[in-house]
Specification:
261 residues, alpha/beta, Rossmann fold, 4-stranded antiparallel β-sheet, 33% helix
Length: 261
């Protein structure tokens, strides 16, 4: 816990016109850990993720990457800092195979400026192998033929391929069955095991309690608390989500009753 965090947000504010969505948010994600970001609908999770990803510029506060404050003016700035967001819809092209999806927009070319298919295929296989993925039959399978869990696998493996430092997973187990959920959660832990700072956005408290090292709880645009998972119960996390407080943990009574979004 003494190491410099991979990502740190300090005092982040974000408004859209008169609507104050984030207020003085502090948040930390460490390399080699899964940090869950939870909160009820409208708590500000999506806006916070988009601020980290450069989609929304922050109005105030700092985004600090590996101890240095950075200006993130757009998604390209975030990508250059090593931020990868895997959205719930995955943004995969069904008509392309796994290799083509993993290199979409980042194709490897030969000296003759043609696609280096062999190199891309080998790198895709290495990325999947590094995560001990055994559920994908061939990297030349078209995405349309993959299950939901396999699609998540491909999307997560892309972040390994491009050596991302911060990977944000938006509801990665939504609409998955029990077996596929277990596979994806195992993959999330292996991704963190490679030294990546994984941010898991989820409504599923069972998933959060199973894989998270740290849990940040947003309540009406404020960070109610960021706690070590081992130090809290699922009931306490749910209370933080719904009321902003759990016993002495969380926002003050005045803050939890007056938080605005």
């Amino acid at each position: 816990m003494t190491a410099v965090p991979m990502l740190e947000l300090r005092g982040v504010d974000k408004s859209f016109g008169p609507v104050h969505v984030l207020s003085s948010v502090d948040f930390t994600a460490r390399a080699g850990e899964v940090t869950a970001l939870v909160g009820d609908n409208g708590a500000g999770k999506t806006t916070l993720v988009k601020c980290i990803g450069g989609i929304h510029p922050v109005d105030a506060g700092e985004l600090i990457f590996q101890g240095t404050a950075r200006s993130v003016r757009g998604p390209r700035d975030a990508a250059l800092l090593g931020v990868e967001i895997v959205y719930q819809d995955l943004a995969l092209a069904d008509n392309l195979d796994i290799v083509e999806n993993m290199f979409l927009g980042r194709e490897v070319l030969t000296r003759l400026r043609t696609l280096d298919e062999n190199s891309m295929e080998k790198l895709a296989e290495q990325a999947l192998a590094s995560l001990s993925v055994r559920t994908v039959r061939s990297v030349r399978q078209h995405v349309v033929s993959l299950s939901g869990g396999q699609r998540q696998t491909v999307a997560i493996a892309k972040s390994v391929l491009w050596k991302s430092k911060v990977v944000i997973l938006d509801e990665p187990t939504a609409a998955l069955g029990v077996a596929q959920t277990e596979q994806v959660l195992d993959l999330v832990r292996r991704l963190a095991g490679q030294g990546v700072a994984v941010i898991l956005v989820s409504h599923n408290m069972n998933d959060v309690m199973k894989v998270a090292d740290s849990i940040g709880v947003l309540f009406l645009g404020r960070m109610a608390a960021q706690v070590r998972r081992k130090d809290v119960t699922q009931t306490q996390v749910v209370e933080l989500i719904t009321a902003g407080r759990s016993g002495e943990l969380g926002l003050s009574p005045a803050e939890s009753s007056g938080a605005a979004v």
